[in-house]
Design goal:
The structure holds two protein chains of two kinds.
Chain A lengths: L2 H20 L4 H23 L3 H33 L3 H5 L5 H31 L8 H29 L4 H14 L11 H7 L3 H13 L6 H29 L1 H4 L3
Helix pairs in contact in A: 1-5, 2-3, 2-5, 3-5, 3-6, 3-9, 5-6, 6-7, 6-9, 6-10, 9-10
Chain B lengths: L5 E11 L5 E12 L4 E5 L6 H8 L7 E6 L2 E2 L4 H7 E4 L11 H11 L4 H14 L15 H12 L6 E5 L7 H18 L2 E6 L2 H7 L2 E6 L2 E6 L1 H7 L4 E8 L13 E7 L2 E6 L2 H11 L4 E8 L3 H9 L1
Parallel strand pairs in B: 3-8, 3-9, 6-7, 7-8
Antiparallel strand pairs in B: 1-2, 1-4, 4-5, 9-10, 11-13, 11-14, 12-13
Classes of the chains: A mainly alpha, B alpha/beta.
Chain lengths: 261, 310
């Protein structure tokens, strides 16, 4: 198969997600309403607490990271959820595609949507709260976004695996992963304030490192970007292997047929 | 000699519930599908037709046994097989908000099609399956018949050598069913592809299939051409006579070749093994009565089905 054919296998999921999103009025809620609610509530909290510019940046970075994480992770999960909801999963898995075609195609669209939301949020936060997201140059922004999108891919893969393993209602368990990340990866506070056991947990979550790295632009402090990048790459690789195994298991157990009924 | 489309040996499949209960769906299925033939899988609901088609198409895997598809080992060469086959499922479902054209484009991309070849294939299929008027209509707005046509068009996207059709006319109106059957026949003849189809409509199997396998409780109850099945099972032709007057039907029972006689007032239904030799003798028995109507019905697969389902 030509390289263009191989590229199109990836783009297929992005194409499907794009068409479905543009025809769904609730996409506006995902892209504007909830992100703005999240940003404005944290931004206004900083005013109420009367904190300095560095702390405003700290909190807004957390709010923005969580928002684009949620936007991108749902796009990856949609690659299976849309098929499951429309009971068309057979048609996808009869084609000669692998898990990585589906995940990276959907992630591509998730990155586009996440980047769009990021642009809106940083513009609004600059205008309303004086947050300058480019204070350290463009490279830290790109590294931070890459880290957030990698974590989003891992969560999206976890949702897909749980659906293929446990059936339709299992996605609820996987969604709670983002809740866990909110708690332990230092979205709104440094992980140093966590109890010791949770601090250990925070150190196995790549987002913790990417947040510390990007925040160090605004509040100089230690960070370990390499560990975060290595963890993200490892989780992504393991996630894809487990996703492939979950697909094979669903074929062995026949759950793939039940998801189409 | 062309390689066989499907060779299955000792295929078994069970489904396990979450709590470990096991339901056996297929038991020691062995069959061969010749290149270029239309092979029918017949049987009542729950007999294992969909599961068997899903195994042949590599959608799910057997618990035991071996399957070769187009000469390739289905346990080793799944990706290669998936490039060469396609499927149209019963109750076709596609992403709701994608139009006919967008759905075909999406699945074409999954098969690695691109550029002008993809656009051409999509447009050709829309023409072939007479979907032009509905090309921009969303899937959720299509009628059942149009959904089925889209499903068949999708199944032809990658020019498959082997096509699996799982109950392709279920839920369709009779006229749409007939159009769909003609379309299947046309695809088969024009493109020379092998077809494995499941159905529980006997006329459909009779019209389309070169050979059929009857599944009953996950096992093959019979496998042959429709004509041979009718002959081998000894299913007789049915002579129905409406009459006025009195006839001693007891005499019919001793006529050679008469397999059964059923009587209602003014109506006799006689099953015989050779109409041409015995019809005359039967009619003579009605000489004391006035025959109002007489019909002779050859056995069809419906009769075979009923015989095998006993």
């Amino acid at each position: 198969m030509s390289w263009r054919g191989e590229v199109n296998k990836y783009l297929a999921s992005a194409y499907k997600n794009w068409i479905i999103s543009k025809r769904n009025v609730f996409t506006l809620f995902e892209l504007f309403f909830w992100p703005m609610i999240s940003l404005l509530s944290i931004g206004l909290l900083t005013r109420f607490l009367n904190v300095g510019p560095a702390m405003v940046s700290f909190l807004l970075v957390g709010a923005i990271a969580l928002t684009i994480l949620q936007v991108a992770q749902i796009d990856v999960a949609y690659v299976l959820l849309f098929d499951m909801w429309s009971k068309s999963i057979k048609n996808t898995f009869i084609a000669p595609v692998r898990s990585y075609h589906l995940v990276f195609g959907a992630l591509l669209f998730g990155i586009a949507r996440g980047a769009f939301v990021f642009a809106i949020l940083v513009s609004v936060s600059q205008y309303l709260f004086g947050f300058d997201f480019r204070a350290g140059g463009l490279l830290p922004v790109l590294i931070f976004l890459a880290g957030v999108f990698a974590v989003a891919a891992v969560i999206g893969i976890a949702v897909c695996i749980s659906i293929l393993t446990f059936g339709q209602k299992a996605d609820v368990a996987a969604w709670s992963l983002s809740g866990l990340i909110l708690l332990v990866s230092g979205i709104y506070y440094p992980v140093a304030v966590l109890p010791p056991a949770l601090q250990v947990l925070s150190r196995v979550i790549p987002l913790t490192y990417f947040l510390e790295y990007y925040r160090s632009v605004f509040i100089p402090g230690p960070h370990n970007l390499a560990t975060g990048a290595a963890l993200a790459a490892a989780y992504l690789a393991v996630g894809l292997i487990l996703f492939d195994r979950a697909i094979e298991r669903a074929r062995r157990t026949g759950i793939l047929l039940r998801l189409s009924e | 000699m062309a390689e066989k489309s499907v060779v299955a040996r000792g295929v078994c499949k069970s489904y396990k519930s979450f709590f470990g209960a096991e339901a056996k769906v297929l038991n020691e299925i062995s069959l061969e599908v010749e290149a270029g033939e239309i092979f029918g899988l017949l049987g009542p609901n729950g007999s294992g037709k969909t599961t068997l088609i899903s195994i042949f198409s590599t959608l799910i895997y057997p618990e035991r046994g071996s399957v070769r598809v187009l000469g390739l080992d289905a346990s080793q060469k799944r990706d290669e097989i998936r490039k060469l086959i396609n499927i149209s499922t019963a109750k076709p479902n596609f992403p709701w908000s994608l139009s006919v054209k967008e759905n075909l484009r999406h699945y074409g991309m999954l098969y690695g099609m691109h550029g002008s070849a993809l656009s051409r294939a999509v447009n050709d299929l829309i023409d072939t399956f007479e979907l032009g008027e509905y090309a921009d209509m969303k899937f959720e707005d299509l009628s059942t018949g149009l959904k089925q046509r889209l499903s068949l068009a999708k199944a032809m996207l990658n020019n498959p050598r082997l096509l699996f059709l799982d109950e392709p006319t279920t839920g369709l109106d009779p006229d749409i069913s007939m159009k769909t059957r003609i379309l299947i026949r046309r695809i088969h003849e024009e493109q020379g592809i092998s077809v494995v189809m499941s159905t529980h409509y006997m006329p459909e199997a009779e019209m389309l299939c070169d050979r059929v396998a009857f599944l009953r409780k996950g096992e093959i109850a019979a496998l042959d051409t429709p004509q041979n099945l009718k002959n081998h099972l000894g299913i007789g032709e049915r002579v129905v006579v409406f009459y006025e007057g009195s006839v001693n039907l007891k005499e019919l029972e001793v006529v050679p070749g008469v397999m059964s006689v059923a009587e209602e007032p003014g109506r006799a239904e006689i099953v015989i093994d050779r109409t041409t030799e015995n019809l005359d003798r039967i009619i003579k028995l009605f000489s004391g009565a006035k025959i109002l109507d007489i019909s002779v019905k050859e056995p069809d697969l419906e009769d075979v089905f009923l015989e095998l389902a006993r």
